[in-house]
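User: Reviewer 2 asked us to show a designed sequence for the structure in our supplementary figure. I'm pasting the structure tokens here. Could you produce the per-position amino acids so we can include them in the response letter?
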């Protein structure tokens, strides 16, 4: 634990609604008797039920400012500044040695990590040097995952936020892909062979994290406290789809045995916009994650992005091609990443297709054939692409397909 003159270590718990974050938090607080901790509990609703549960089931209290309640918003966006103000006041008192943060079910972990690791411009308190992010933990509901695999339903079931919106599967995927420790909770509700398969999928999505099976949130405190596992740069690059795009991800035999596989689709010509839009809305059910960028004929000005998380599929503008940048900016890219020039086309520059697909029990050969068929043919390459209808949004990605209610 932290000495009085050293940074206060921080563990952040993320996870979808009902995954078991609060149960895990209370288990750690009640198991580690020597833990001198303060707790921040974030809840999207106006009434912070989780903070009340922490008070009732542990020795901490809001009255003594050991439990900080942040409600009616998320610490990844609206409440980032509020969180820093609160933990800044805690740091002034310095009568605790560890900070535990439970984020809301729809919080994105990267902004929370950035807040502690790099500060936040809209807050007066700078946490760097005072707090030190130690471990990012994501709690996954094994039973919900199992049900989704078995029925083809959404990974987040029918959970909704206080405004009536479905909790996005993208948030769950972010929580899985950006963590140091992944707790697979409620394992008592899932057969062992199914747990093996779920683990393989999670490992494909997040190869770097330690995966720990738990029941009722019962994790050994030392597995998520003072682990010294957090590294922002490594965590940011550790998602399975990023490793695939970089050519550095290889599945173990056990993963292949359970039908978990991945591949990268690359091409140096554009997709026909309506053909690829049709394909994206009809991807195989077994594809759990798909991400990357693509070239859509007629939209040479912008790099298009694909983001599939569970049954949610989004596609549309996601940045610029290097070829569209001013020459001085291009040269900076070339200097930083010399390999870009190896695939540089004299006419089209870096425009192309690079998509990764991760899933289980899908027909890769058939999907690759469909992707090939969505590319422009040789004759279409000579057409006027302005005649093609454009199904994608002007400024940002849009939802193409979501799970049925």
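Assistant: Here is a per-position design you can include in the supplement:
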């Amino acid at each position: 634990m932290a000495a009085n003159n050293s940074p206060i270590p921080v563990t952040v718990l993320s996870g979808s609604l009902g995954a078991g974050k609060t149960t895990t938090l209370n288990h750690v607080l009640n198991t580690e008797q020597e833990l001198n901790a303060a707790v921040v509990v974030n809840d999207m609703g106006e009434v912070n039920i989780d903070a009340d549960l922490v008070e009732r089931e542990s020795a901490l209290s809001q009255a003594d400012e050991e439990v900080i309640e942040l409600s009616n918003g998320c610490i990844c966006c609206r409440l980032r500044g509020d969180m820093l103000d609160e933990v800044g006041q805690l740091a002034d008192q310095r009568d605790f040695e560890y900070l535990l943060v439970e984020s809301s079910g729809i919080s994105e972990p990267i902004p929370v990590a950035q807040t502690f690791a790099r500060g936040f411009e809209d807050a007066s308190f700078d946490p760097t040097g005072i707090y030190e992010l130690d471990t990012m933990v994501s709690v996954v509901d094994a039973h919900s995952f199992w049900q989704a695999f078995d029925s083809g339903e959404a990974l987040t079931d029918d959970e909704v936020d206080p405004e009536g919106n479905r909790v996005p599967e993208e948030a769950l995927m972010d929580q899985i892909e950006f963590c140091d420790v992944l707790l697979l909770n409620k394992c008592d509700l899932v057969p062992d062979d199914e747990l093996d398969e779920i683990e393989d999928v999670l490992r494909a999505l997040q190869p770097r994290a330690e995966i720990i099976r738990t029941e009722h949130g019962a994790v050994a405190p030392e597995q998520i406290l003072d682990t010294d596992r957090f590294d922002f740069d490594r965590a940011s690059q550790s998602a399975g789809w990023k490793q695939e795009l970089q050519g550095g991800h290889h599945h173990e035999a056990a993963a292949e045995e359970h039908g978990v596989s991945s591949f990268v689709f690359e091409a140096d010509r554009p997709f026909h916009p309506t053909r690829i839009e049709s394909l994206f809305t009809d991807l195989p059910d077994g594809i759990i994650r798909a991400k990357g960028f693509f070239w859509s004929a007629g939209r040479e000005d912008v790099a298009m992005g694909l983001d599939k998380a569970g049954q949610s599929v989004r596609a549309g503008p996601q940045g610029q091609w290097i070829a569209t940048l001013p020459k001085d900016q291009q040269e900076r890219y070339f200097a930083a990443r010399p390999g870009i020039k190896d695939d540089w086309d004299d006419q089209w520059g870096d425009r192309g297709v690079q998509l990764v697909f991760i899933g289980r029990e899908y027909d890769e050969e058939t999907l690759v054939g469909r992707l090939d068929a969505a590319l422009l043919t040789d004759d279409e390459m000579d057409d006027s692409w302005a005649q093609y209808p454009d199904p994608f949004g002007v400024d940002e990605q849009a939802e193409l397909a979501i799970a049925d209610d």
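For the response letter, you might also mention the following. The chain has 14 helices and 13 strands. The radius of gyration is 23 Å.
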